[in-house]
Amino acid sequence: MAASHEQTLNVAAILASPRLNGNSRVLLDRAMETLRHKQPAHLDIQELLISRLDIAPCRACEDCFDDGRCRQRDDMDRVQSILENADLLVVASPVYFSGPPGPFKQLIDRCQNIWAAKTLLRRQNPRRAHRRALILLAAARKTPRVFEATQAIIRAWLRSLDVPAEQVVTCPGVDGPGEASARKGRLEAVERAMAKILDDVMEASGLQP
Prior knowledge:
Layout: E1 8-15, H1 23-38, E2 42-49, H2 64-67, H3 76-85, E3 88-94, H4 102-109, H5 112-119, E4 132-138, H6 148-160, E5 165-171, H7 186-205
Parallel strand pairs: 1-2, 1-3, 3-4, 4-5
Helix pairs in contact: 1-7
């Protein structure tokens, strides 16, 4: 089916760091600059600053097992709408004690109702075939193993959201705000990963530049 120039690429840009101008922001900004430069289609970009959101913990009440809806009312209503309608999710996060920051993990846990709708109630996202994600991770430690647990958590979350594929860029050895901008090759890696995942989602969705 031919795509028109009126079609929209819905993008969720997620900053998981409590530092609004830290290394995760450096990586996210480069990814979004690359996306805008490519101009694949009309872009609808929704940015989520997790540290500024009011998101209560999952209460493990399991009410969502019946109808796929969470009984709690807070910013997750808006967040889940953005997540479920995104064709491309761009997630930038630091690594704290080998895992994601607490507020981000809290957001992930509150997607239990989406997991229930998908797994228990057999509902699938109609965009599932072409939904993609770019994961950008920064850590102070230099060993590559520091990213393994966070990647596993985010990938499990993405599968619950019906996002079947992603690109990952890691940036080790950065601690002070902005150090990622000087880390050799990391911003170029972000550009390459964004270009690749963008080509993938465009081809899978039938969108055209």
